[in-house]
Task: structure prediction
Amino acid sequence: MTANTTLIVLGASGDLTARLLMPALGQLLTREPDRGIRLIGAGMDDWDDARWREVVRASFETADASGPAVDAVLAGTSYRQADITDPADLTTLLAEARSADANSRAAFYFAVPPAIAARACVALEQVDLPDGLILALEKPFGTDQESARALNVQLAKLVPEEQVHRIDHFLGRSTVLNVLGVRFTNRVFEPVWSSEHIESVVIRYDEALALEGRAGYYDRAGALTDMIQSHLLQVLAVIAMDPPSTLGAVDFRDAKGMVLRATSVWDGDPVTSSRRARYAAGSVDGRMLPAYADEPAVDPSLQTETLAEMTVGIATVRWEGVPFTLRSGKALGDRRSEIVITFKPVSHLPSGFTGSADRSVLRLTLGPDRMALEVNLNGPGDPFHLDRASLEAEFGEGELLAYAEVLQGILDGDPTLSVRGDTAEQCWRIVQPVIDAWRSDLVPLDEYPAGTPGPSSWPAL
Result:
């Protein structure tokens, strides 16, 4: 089988590769048995081909991967011990990719911490890069707007922007993609998708998982950077975009970029428009958890938040005056992964109705993927008494894992589901005032017992 792409995984011996990337590749190869891939793993660990092959095989098994393409990858994959910040080692890896198939396109997947990826991109300046080389980088893209801009400048020295894939696997989630179908193919929704009819939008991703051994990264990131700055702002862009001409990469990413450029902290006040907290000792699903500050490898003086909320506004005709609240946290008892769109009340409610005429709410739930439209209906018995009803539909699971969706784009050279450089910078611009306010202790760091919905003093969303 001819290899259409040589995928070179940098950081192949790390957790991300085995837990997320390889299962996604295995699923993709199972679904597309004619796809030709050559896989090369590279990392600092002193592994040989046999050990690497077993890691790939075990990861494939978790996705029930099988078929001729899977067998071909397992038979032909190799591992090279390499320092990916060394131009000589990077040159050797590209030479191996060329030797396998001169016509095969090469793709570097940086499954390494962002700082290492940035150093590797500097080293690539000294390497003779092949035409069509794809660079795929994991978030976060920089640590602030300035560093994100510097990374974009460096990447532009290496390859054209359309060959850079900034990975945000949230954009591969089936629910996020289904938002496009709900919005743009139903006349009942598209005409009312604006400030004229919508009162507020909440995007939340509340997890029961705690730190789970990720202190090395998470303690210097926190919930705001880990989730809101990246994933949830991308979801906001999909919800709030104007209808693009097509769903191709240029039109789709242009529409997202326009939204993010118009987005900023609500009322320009990061103190009143944001909240932060971290979990204290408690119990989640019967498992006792220590306070975050007492977790191994955590530095309490960093005051890292494990729950973050911020409200933003979008300065466009469509969305002026509508608050978008983004929230994400860990070790929470009330697990919610959803997009909640609350509509304004009707302009006139005829007298004579009894019961509650609450606002209509559209709720899009991530995992399981479903949609629920909460409306008021005449109840049984008294025809003038209003009851609440929920009209529900299952989206069903997507055919591919989220990582497989974005990996498919990398292998096909289609950047539609990747983050464009300018929007990566805009996401940092949006959250920077909140980061600055928190660093200046202008917003208190509250606490909540693990296993609870969050601080009791916070208003319910």
Remarks:
- The mean pLDDT is 93.
